[in-house]
Amino acid sequence: MSLLNVDTHHCVKLICCPVNHTGANPQTNAVAIVPARFASSRLPGKPLLEIAGKPMICWVAERALAARNVSRVIVATDDARVLDAVRAAGFEAVLTDARHASGTDRLAEVALSLNDFEIIVNVQGDEPLISPDTIDRAIEALLKDVESSMATTWEPIMSAADVLNPDLVKVVFDQRDHALYFSRAPLPYPRDAVRRHGSIDAALENEPELLPQFRKHTGLYVYRREFLLEFAGWPQSTLERAEALEQLRAIEHGVKIKVVQASGHSIGVDTAEDLERVRAIVEKGSFELRVSRFGETSSADNPKLETRSLKPPLVCL
Questions:
Q1: Which pTM value belongs to this model?
Q2: Which of 36, 70, 188, 284 could disulfide-link to 125, CB 3.0 to 4.6 Å?
Q3: CB atoms within 10 A of CB 185
Q4: In Å, how far are 10, 191, 202, 204 from 195, measured between CA atoms?
Q5: Within a domain: residue 14?
Q6: Distance from CA of residue 76 to its chain's centroid?
Q7: Which domain holds residue 26?
Q8: Is residue 9 part of a domain?
Q9: Does residue 3 lie within any of the structural domains?
């Protein structure tokens, strides 16, 4: 399979996130669990697909362990092959019930035995370039918000195609950054612009200034352990079934979900094309780039921002 070019339209800004295991904070009572299901309709054996000679799931574990607020990372899998690969790479892994209907159920099974941890982080097993900074942001946001039982993250949406893509979940939240709703549909719906142009497609094409109001929900979750165990026992809700989104179960129960902006753009590996895109990024080699927030990059003309030099296997996202 040939490598694809990196889509610079959807990956406008790159963020360097070196993996630094010495930065972990042992005082933070947080454990990251990475659910890793071997079967996948589009990418069979996805956790073990290689990126620069290393299984994808090991990239995820390494990135999660680099978060300064994470003191332990556990890969939770339903397959002995994944278990063996993760342990061979020096990471912790456990075998879970193969009958779980979702990654959250797998997460809760492991969390049940982690009595010493107050915060449980659900890191998606198909995001090998997840930013450790994003994980830290979500943990810190939940710790500071006593009203919230869980936290998650969002990113700006960069194109009209993404707004219209039902596989890309949108989120809206209130002035205190608590989630109001998650949907696969364009949300919020720009009624007046649609009336002016006849369709939402035309509205987005003719009024690109509408894009900043849309926010992409990313799959990172941080839970208070007690809530996670309770949440996993609730039956599916009406809205959850309609949108096929588990977090709507919490919304329907009146649970506060803190929503925080991610430190950079994420790339979930759902297709062969996604995999080749990630491989291409990794194979670029060494980078020198620093981003303090979306839309601002460092360079020789902007020396006030810190510049980091990265070398393989460190990756820029």
A1: 0.81
A2: 36
A3: 12
A4: 28, 6, 10, 12
A5: no
A6: 17
A7: 21-310
A8: no
A9: no
